[in-house]
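User: If you would, consider this record:
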Amino acid sequence: MKTSRRRRAIRRAIDFLRDRTPEALLMVTIPALLVYPVLVFRAFGGGARVFWYAARRGEVSAMDYVVNIGSAAVATLGTAAVLVLLLSRWGRIWACARKMILEALNRRVVVGLVVFFVIVTPLLPFILKSEGNPISQVQITLTYSLLLAQLLLTLLAVFLGLSSMSEEIDYKEIQITDVKPIPRWQFLAGKWIGVMLIVNFLLYAMGGSTYLLVQGVQSGSAQRVVDRLLADTPEKPLTAWTEKLVEKERRDVKEQVFASRLSARPEPPDVAAAVEVELVDRQKKNELPEFMSVDRARDLLTEIYVQRAGTIGPGETKGWVIKGLLPSKDPEKFVYIRFKMTSPTSVPDRKVFGDWLIRPPKEGMAYGLAMSRWTINAYQEFKAPSSLIREDGTLEIAFRNRDPRGISVHFDPQEGIEILQRVEGFFPNYWRSLLVLQCHLALLAAVGIMAGSLLSFPVGALLVGAMFFIGLISGWLQSGFHEQVAPNWQVLYDSRLPGADEVPAWYQVFSNVLLKFFLVVLRSLPDITEYSPISHVATGRLVPWLMVARAVTVMVFIKGGIVALVAILLFRRKELARVQV
């Protein structure tokens, strides 16, 4: 008798907790909503600061500033308008959202995805291969943990919306709701809110566990590096020395990963004069391909000259000027030079010798790293005092190729060199990255609900799966559509391509129209890689509030708004039951 009473008491307690889960999720989500008032102040302030730095580099115009401030305004005012609309109809919308959450708790897929994340994530530091240093280990763990969380929550957001809507329609359960005085747009809004409450809670839970995991990886990998160094030491090392070595490894991780650093890149080389000279010379000699326009030839020649400017031969020195940095006299503050060099020839040990030199603000000896060995095809960093930055925010650096084997090195004009300067800590940056991921989930949840309201589950799953796959490769497809069939540089050196003169004019017009159509379609679909903050967080780059504002504007209000309008308009006209007389 007592055992049965205990079981009934436990069962009632479980049912009570389960029945209050929607309210608990709502209370957990409210603190995240309180971040948006901060977005107003920080976005406008950050927009002014970003515009000021970029204007000093000559990279933006007044239109860019208007776009930045417009994104912040749209995100703020749009969020306020949506909240007012939902709160004015909250009773009916919350009833639908609450029903959605209770249904999701009965689905095993939710528990399965959470268990999968809990099991796999702690194993990532042991599965993934890094370069052996703590920085690489923390970056890889952080990157793949966030990617795994984003992938699982994306599948969950789409599946919950799609399955809930399609099953209610297929099993005629929606007829019970449809006869009640609840407009269909409120029904769809309730479903979306229910899905978002679930995935938001799991997002912050997974994000918190990832944060704790990388903190543990930082300490463990630093100690393992020291243990490997001391493995072959016969005598017992000094405790003070090992403690300093561990502290140095942890400090490097804190400075290069657990930070928010402003990014600045060198100005592109000015090759316009040289390009025009060669272009005119080619036109006089009639060396341009017949099917190529002058503008296209100018673009290809510019690309060739820019790539040549990044090559440093044996014994040569190449300098860059970086603008838009924050000058500081504090000896405890540093800037970080992050670079990646390649070589057109094979390097057996992937190491080259070279000097990095930094010109001081005043006349004197340059700061630098002499005759250091640097790795080919790998990102590397070294730090320099912020006092080397001039009063106008510029920094002059140079690389001298001193490899005795006669090896040339190349720095990519876009990704080869980057200057990073710390502006704040890691946690605010990490929080903003989760807000950006939240925008991705909001759009995909709306896509799943739209597909479920219009299609059956198999057809909707096929359609959403195809959209998800295209979204993963959308950026690659868009860049591919801009490329020509022949290699860019080869076209300029081949006066005629086989079959080029046989292409009729109508075919070229048709192909251009078809190309533009495909680009419009790709840009309208959800791009999973758009506004991705994961690479920023893993490398210690700043995720600015303007990036959050743009993600809210584009992913939620523009693309998500279009999806919501299509779902509402078509669902209102959908016949859910046939009237029988």
